[in-house]
Amino acid sequence: MPLVMAPSESSRAESPVLLFPSSSSASASASASASARVEAVVVFNICDSYVRRPAQAERVIGTLLGSVLPDGTVHVRNTYVVPHNESADQVALDVDYHHNMYASHHKVNPKEVIVGWFSTGFGVSAGSTLIHEFYSREVQSPIHLTVDTGFTRGDASIKAYISSNLSLGDRQLAAHFQEIPLDLRMLEAGKVGFDILKSTIMEKLPNDLDGMESSIEKLCTLSNAIYRYVDDVVVKIFACKKFQFPL
User: Fold this and answer.
1) What is the 3-state secondary structure (H, E, C) of 104-122?
2) Distance CA 156, CA 201 (A)
3) What angle do the packed helices 40-51 and 188-199 form, to 10 degrees?
4) SS3 state of residue 205
5) Which of 81, 31, 23, 50 is nearest to 156 (CA)?
6) Are the C-beta atoms of residues 199 and 191 closer than 8 Å to each other?
7) 118 closest CA partner among 52, 165, 71, 50
8) CA-closest candidate to residue 202, choices 146, 150, 145
9) How far apart are CA 10 and CA 18, in angstroms?
10) Conformation bin of residue 159: beta by default, left when phi > 0, alpha when psi is -120 to 50
11) What phi and psi values does residue 64 have, to the nearest 5 degrees?
12) Bridge partners, residue 36, by sequence
């Protein structure tokens, strides 16, 4: 059953989203005790889900799985997409799907728990406050990971945020998203793949015909290399025989 979330009339007018970069002075104290470590497979899964998204979807959101290390660092090791519909004034999440997926993941790896959520796109949008409010009921102090799959500024910007409410008495003034330090963990092979992602914008996955064409081209290239190698060997054999002398 989908969960539909919409801001109240008062919060629409009085609760904007405040976004602070990690370089700001305000972030120094907030991010001192919060940081995130993200495995490369998480980024690849998010990018893959964005390419496979429904045609009408502008962005993809989902759940982050991992653990909180003793020093307070949130270690993100896995993720899954949560179907959702989003409009200007409300967000609908498939909560049943989310809970079923988490239960399945938890059976395989009980050490991985919900640590936050992700979205594709640059920065934090107004709808993000509603989604973050839902995940705040799922886990204490969730992080929000954004992956700019649209290459808004020329590269795949990846950022992590924590959120808190700015209030004056009983009146909520704004949702405060604070950027926190992010450590992207990659092996050498992962760095190669990520560099390709940063330099390539793909609107769709290649179809079977495109894949076959690419495979044939690679096969022709290898065949030509083998032919050249065999020709070189034959030339060297004849050259050796030419200069052999009878005993």
Assistant:
1) HHHHHCCCCEEEEEEEECC
2) 10
3) 30
4) coil
5) 50
6) no
7) 50
8) 150
9) 17
10) beta
11) -100, 135
12) 74, 182
Closest CA to 105 of 142, 80, 82: 80
- Residue carrying structure tokens 């793949």: 193
Residue found under tokens 């009339």 = 9
Query: Most distant CA pair in the chain: distance in Å?
Result: 108
Please tell me the pTM assigned to this model: 0.66
pLDDT for residue 87: 74
Residue with tokens 């997926």, as numbered in its chain: 101
| Residue type, position 211, single letter | G
Rg (CA), the chain: 26
pLDDT 10s digit of each residue in the chain, 247 long? Answer: 565 555 544 444 444 555 545 544 444 444 445 788 998 888 888 888 888 888 888 889 999 999 999 988 899 999 999 998 877 677 888 899 999 999 999 999 999 999 999 998 877 877 788 888 889 889 988 999 998 877 666 566 788 888 876 656 666 556 678 888 888 876 555 555 556 555 555 555 556 666 677 778 888 888 888 988 888 888 887 777 666 655 4
Provide the 8-state DSSP code for 11.
Answer: H
Strands 171-180, 73-81: pairing is unpaired
How far apart CA 17 and CA 165 sit, in angstroms, is 10
Q: How far is it, in rounded angstroms, from Cα 215 to Cα 192?
A: 21
Q: What is the pLDDT of residue 48?
A: 86
3-class DSSP state of 7: coil
User: Which residue in the block uniquely carries the two structure tokens 């092996």?
Assistant: 187
Torsion angle of the four alpha carbons 88, 150, 178, 25, in this order, in degrees rounded to the nearest 10: -130
Q: DSSP strand E in the chain: where?
A: 2-5, 17-20, 35-39, 61-68, 73-81, 84-86, 91-94, 113-120, 143-147, 158-168, 171-180, 182-185
